[in-house]
Amino acid sequence: MWEREQMFVGGAWVAPSTDSRIEVTSPHTEKLIGRVAAASTEDVDRAVAAARRAFDEGPWPRTDPAERVEVIRRLATLYRGHRDELAELITAELGAPISFARRAQVALPGALMTALADTAAGYSWQEKRPGVYGQDIILRKEPVGVVAAVVPWNMPQFLTVTKVVPALLAGCTVVLKPAPESSLDALFFADLLDQVGLPPGVVNVIPADREVSAYLVAHPGIDKVSFTGSTAAGRQVAAACAPNLTKVSLELGGKSAVIALDDADPATVARAVRLSGMGMAGQICNSLTRVLVPTSRVGDYADALAATLSAIRIGDPADPATEMGPLVARRQQERVRRYIDTGVREGARLVVGGTDLPDGIDRGWYVRPTVFSEVDNSMTIAREEIFGPVLVVIPYGDEDEAVRIANDSEYGLAGSVFTADTEHGLEVAGRVRAGTFGVNQGYSMDPAAPFGGVKASGYGRELGREGLEGYLDVKSISVATA
């Protein structure tokens, strides 16, 4: 049982203003495993005020960028020393298999810190260009200000690092608001921040419910909101930012398509689809969930996907042999089951999976990996983000139709194409409207590459140089010649 009675505000562990608590329940056992202090609107005011002071009056925004880089390198070293206990905590609170938690939920964020520090170390914080009228123009990259980082539960440490670390490297101060389900690992991260020597108020961590989160993103003391979550919630965040003209970046939902061309191999595609999201039971925004295949090969792909997903070992997420654990909450399990029922009702063919619990499991919020075939792109299961282990196989007649189907979605987060001809694959990638794309693989989430979507998948980019620049303003200074 993890008990956290305080929040991290102003460089100190402080008691909340109310006795409200967030309860964390194991998705595997359905038992209470933790309880943390829940922030109120008054606590938000305290955290924003602390971040505001740290930005307006403190040393961090005025620190040499090289010194900020060294702080992040120290944080990365400290973080790597706590990988095992952090992975075990994420497995307990989210149901992520321990092998996946060690690799993707913890090791990847640790490596990401170093990569982001390297990006900042090589960044040009100031440049000079000649003006049209003969004067010199100096461009300075300056921190945007106080950042509200709102992080979901599915990849909490990875998404925390993609927001907090670039903001810190840019010289911003931060109020981090984790999801209730992943509050425990967020406070663990705060413990590490507390040890690394940041000035008071540079990072503040306040677990809170949705209502208090809405108060945070609308707060007039915030200069930028960085939000990851559903498209519906993203629209609300954008609307809340508008009255204050608060800058906002949104990384939202997806319904990503993989296009298997005539020369692709069904088994290779099936493995890539599995790797794109099944480690977290399909609860990954850029999972490849629509599998577009030639009409003549629908059976081959349905069989390959069914065989690959049926071989996934499902069970106790703490068991190193487990490859897929439960969904994060009962509401998520019920949501996915409703989509499966809808797919059957609308006439799709259920190839494997369904709404029953996996064999040998009698508790926990599990859903079988599920494949539908003979799916039309107009069906609900092909259009809405399910956020669970459910795939749909959609036939196409020719390549033009495949591209049309891939683009026939309100989302545009990710996608992929599989072909023996890489150059042709790049041509297809250029025809699909998506912020990120893979050729003969799912999107790799390389730290050097900017990640983000188009259309209803949001706007703004994280990772790479572009991710750092999302926390910077450009000031132009014109200098008269003597």
Automatic annotation (TrEMBL):
<dbReference type="InterPro" id="IPR016162">
    <property type="entry name" value="Ald_DH_N"/>
</dbReference>
<feature type="domain" description="Aldehyde dehydrogenase">
    <location>
        <begin position="13"/>
        <end position="477"/>
    </location>
</feature>
<dbReference type="InterPro" id="IPR016163">
    <property type="entry name" value="Ald_DH_C"/>
</dbReference>
<dbReference type="InterPro" id="IPR015590">
    <property type="entry name" value="Aldehyde_DH_dom"/>
</dbReference>
<dbReference type="InterPro" id="IPR016161">
    <property type="entry name" value="Ald_DH/histidinol_DH"/>
</dbReference>
<dbReference type="GO" id="GO:0016620">
    <property type="term" value="F:oxidoreductase activity, acting on the aldehyde or oxo group of donors, NAD or NADP as acceptor"/>
</dbReference>
<comment type="similarity">
    <text>Belongs to the aldehyde dehydrogenase family.</text>
</comment>
<protein>
    <submittedName>
        <fullName>Aldehyde dehydrogenase</fullName>
    </submittedName>
</protein>
<dbReference type="Pfam" id="PF00171">
    <property type="entry name" value="Aldedh"/>
</dbReference>
<keyword id="KW-0560">Oxidoreductase</keyword>
<dbReference type="InterPro" id="IPR029510">
    <property type="entry name" value="Ald_DH_CS_GLU"/>
</dbReference>
<feature type="active site">
    <location>
        <position position="251"/>
    </location>
</feature>
